[in-house]
Amino acid sequence: MAEPLILITDCDLPGDAAERTLRAAGLRAERAPETSSATLADLGAEAEGLIVQWHRIDGDLMDRMPRLRMISRLGIGYDMVDVAAATARGIAVANTPSYCIEEVAAHTVAMIVAQGRALPAYDRAVREGVWKAVDARPMAVRPSRTTVSVLGFGRIGSLVARGVRGLGFRVLVADPYASPDVVRAAGCEPVSIEEAIAAADILTLHVPLTADTHHLLDAAALATMRRGAVVVNTCRGPLIDEAALAEALGSGRLGAAALDVFEAEPLPAGSPLREAPNVLLTPHAAWYSPEALEDLPVHAAENLIRYLGGEPGAAIVNPAYADAR
């Protein structure tokens, strides 16, 4: 019997760690040279598994891969996979939730502190010859008098909350799936999403991108925030209406933002965020460290190895897929 075939639809990471990991486990691995539907359908006709980074995997493509059993995503988010379509077809979908928890949490806390303490503004002022501690920007916070609202209390959100709690910030947590007792045990206050947004001096996002969370921070939500508040996003770009955010920053209603993710990536040259005041931008880099880069393709491959081998441990996000098999 031929070894199961795993097709890597797309991957911009260096090296071939995913292929090597799969082959060491006795699986065949092939990387698509490009991502047209015809090419993927042809190469994937016999595939029992996919590894996907950014390419959209919809029900039509799944139907052209009749042997497909699992889709493993290179990363934490999985909005590029039509999970409902996969579930209806009995196809498991997995992500790689643990490869960069520390990195994203550290990047987020760094952004919170950098903007909360006005570090970019101070840096610019010094370079421009201005040496005034109180004039560089109107807000440089005292943690004990500052509220950080954390939307989402999963692996990363809970670690961010612990980090800023350790610095003395008051922390509100909004997560309908988190036990209020668990939130309180972490020294945080459970609140609704609306309460968290309205009460935040600094708001940080750690929720999955779904139809319900798309533009979670739109013009109406931003209008409920405190004047001078800071928005931090290291999660998914489309959680925020970027035009509304740029307008709120430009008008002075919001004090600052720190963004690692965007609705379109790379960030378009004409994006209003490039010209908005007090914005700290990084290039979807919160996940990165040499260790995370090494772990990511291996974790994605190991999902498939475990699943196809009948072992527990794959990070399946749609357990209801089994009902359709």
From TrEMBL:
UniProt keywords, alphabetically: NAD, Oxidoreductase
Keyword Acetylation appears in the UniProt entry: no
Domain D-isomer specific 2-hydroxyacid dehydrogenase catalytic: from-to ranges: 21-318
Domain named D-isomer specific 2-hydroxyacid dehydrogenase NAD-binding: residues: 109-286
Keyword Oxidoreductase part of the UniProt annotation: yes
Entry similarity comment: Belongs to the D-isomer specific 2-hydroxyacid dehydrogenase family.
The protein, known as: Phosphoglycerate dehydrogenase-like enzyme
